[in-house]
Each structure stands twice: as structure tokens, then as C-alpha cells.
């Protein structure tokens, strides 16, 4: 955890017994699960969907079945090619329950993997997946990581803060950003809404970064049981924005086919 910094004074942190301590004696205890809370207290009280246990459990169950493995494999290949066999430091911003972070870590040798998320419950899942991850409760708006200390930042379906990503990345560091494309989950939305809408296409232009590559991943998924259909729905923001009447449409649905469309931006720090 040597690259974490104090959220109060920005000083470097050192591990003493089971506590991270900075030069000004600000102290942060590691939880029994191994993560540390570096979220400033006044910023952690606001309720966020990321804290919802229903969403986390659904995402964990869904991803464990390999439905998004093509995306995982694509990002893993990008990281391995960037590492080129050398030790690197990777930071996953908004790492959630650690599916991508842990699996990529398992395929990249002799490297450090850090993950931050605003949800303590998410980090419990992540720490159980991989004890070798350095994890902290923190926000992308104030990343508690040293300047120019990371080779790669992962940003998988999470809010973007290019100022902070540029700060923590080394010169020529790489940002890997995954976004949903226009038709992603359109079949699911068609089963729920009377007037389903397509996703807005995100720009491939990011401040402080040049986009070197934009990879599109498209396939379809077929489900033959309501449990997996509900898990997919509950792990998305749609679940929290949908009326109980529309939610109930999926509860007895035994089969579903939906489009899966991801875009992966590979960007280099300017």
C-alpha cells in the first residue's frame, strides 16, 4: 500500500502494524478485510448507489458466470501488452467488487494492483477475491495515490476524472476506459420499458489524453432462467430508476436475448 497518500495532508503513508500513518501522524486503520478507508468523513455520508448490497450481490453473481468475459479478456490483453513483461503499477478507479481487477492481476506477473471505490461493501467482495490487491475507500474526485506513481489507470463503467488520472499516471501512462455502446442491453430494456431508449454515445476525446485505440466488443447473450435475467437488471442503474410495475415484468420472464456492446478506449497521457 506504499503508493497511497493521506487524504488530509497528502503526505506519504507507511504501514505500521495494521495502520497506515503519515508524517503528520494522521492514522488510518486497515479493516479486518484488508482495505483502508481514505475517504474524508464529510464526503462519505452521502448515500450512493455504489453502497447498495443488492446491486453488488447481483453483479458478483452475474460476472462469476463469465457473461462479460470477452470484455475482461480484451482489457487483460491490453494491460499485458503494455506491461511487456516488466513490473507495473495498475490503479482501478471504481473497482467495485473486484472482478476485473483481480482477474487481470492474476494474469500480470510481478506487478502492483491498487483499487479504490466509494463502497465499503464492494471492497469486501474485492478483498475476498484477491488478498494481493491494495484497496481503499475513496472517490475518483480525490484519489489518495501519489503523483506520477501508476503505469495504468483502469476506468470500467465508472465516473471519469481526467485531471486526477493524469496526476497519478507516470509520463506516457495509459488510461483504459470501458463504456457501454449505443445498443448495449437494448434487449433487456425492451423487455422492461414500453419505449426503450438507446445509450448515448460517449466521446472518445478526453482532456489531457490522446486516444491511441478504440476497441468495439459486440455479441449477444441468451438467458434461459429468471435468476440471471434479474441479476443483470439489478446490477445496472436501470433497476433504481424503474417503477415497481416495470420491474415486475422481469420476475417471471424465463428467457431473454439481449445485445452486449462495449467500447474500450486506450488513451495515453499527454
Task: Describe the model.
- This protein has helices at residues 41-44, 53-64, 69-83, 99-105, 120-129, 162-168, 186-192, 226-234, 244-247, and strands at 14-16, 19-21, 27-29, 36-37, 89-93, 112-117, 134-137, 150-156, 169-180, 209-223, 256-269.
- The model is unreliable at 44-49 (pLDDT under 50).
- It starts with 13 loop residues before the first strand and ends with a strand.
- The chain is an alpha/beta fold and 270 residues long.
- It has a single domain, classed as Vaccinia Virus protein VP39 (Rossmann fold, 3-Layer(aba) Sandwich).
- An eight-stranded mixed β-sheet has the order 4-7-6-5-8-9-11-10, with helices on both faces.
- The longest helix is centred in the N-terminal third of the chain and has 15 residues, at 69-83.
Features:
Rossmann fold; 8-stranded mixed beta sheet; 9 helices; 270 residues; 28% helix; 3-stranded antiparallel beta sheet; alpha/beta
How many structural domains are formed by the residues? 1
Compute the average pLDDT. 93
Structural class: alpha/beta
Proportion of residues in helical segments = 25-40%
Could you spell the SSE succession in H and E letters? EEEEHHHEHEHEEHEHEHHE
Tally of DSSP helical segments: 9
CATH topology descriptor: Rossmann fold
Report strand %.
Answer: 25-35%
Assign the CATH architecture: 3-Layer(aba) Sandwich
Assign the CATH superfamily: Vaccinia Virus protein VP39
Amino acid at each position: 500500500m506504499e503508493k497511497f497518500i493521506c487524504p488530509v495532508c497528502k503526505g506519504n503513508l507507511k504501514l505500521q502494524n495494521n495502520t497506515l500513518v503519515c508524517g503528520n501522524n494522521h492514522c488510518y486503520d486497515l479493516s479486518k478485510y484488508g482495505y483502508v478507508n481514505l475517504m474524508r468523513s464529510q464526503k462519505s455520508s452521502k448515500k450512493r448507489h455504489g453502497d447498495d448490497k443488492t446491486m453488488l450481490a447481483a453483479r458478483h453473481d452475474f460476472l462469476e458466470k463469465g457473461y462479460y468475459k470477452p470484455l475482461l479478456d480484451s482489457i487483460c490483453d491490453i494491460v499485458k501488452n503494455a506491461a511487456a513483461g516488466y513490473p507495473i503499477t495498475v490503479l482501478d478507479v471504481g473497482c467495485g467488487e473486484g472482478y476485473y481487477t483481480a482477474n487481470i492481476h492474476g494474469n500480470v506477473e510481478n506487478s502492483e494492483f491498487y483499487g479504490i471505490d466509494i463502497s465499503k461493501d464492494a471492497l469486501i467482495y474485492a478483498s475476498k477475491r484477491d488478498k494481493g490487491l491494495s484497496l481503499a475507500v475513496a472517490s475518483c474526485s480525490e484519489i489518495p495515490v501519489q503523483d506520477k506513481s501508476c503505469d495504468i489507470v483502469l476506468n470500467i463503467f465508472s465516473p471519469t476524472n481526467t485531471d486526477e488520472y493524469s496526476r497519478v499516471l507516470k509520463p506516457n501512462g495509459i488510461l483504459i476506459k470501458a463504456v457501454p455502446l449505443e445498443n448495449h442491453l437494448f434487449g433487456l430494456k425492451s423487455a422492461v420499458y414500453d419505449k426503450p431508449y438507446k445509450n448515448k454515445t460517449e466521446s472518445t476525446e478526453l482532456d489531457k489524453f490522446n486516444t491511441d485505440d478504440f476497441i468495439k466488443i459486440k455479441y449477444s447473450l441468451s438467458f434461459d432462467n429468471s435468476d440471471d435475467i434479474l441479476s443483470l437488471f439489478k446490477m445496472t442503474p436501470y433497476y433504481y430508476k424503474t417503477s415497481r410495475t416495470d420491474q415486475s415484468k422481469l420476475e417471471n420472464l424465463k428467457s431473454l436475448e439481449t445485445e452486449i456492446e462495449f467500447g474500450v478506449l486506450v488513451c495515453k497521457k499527454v
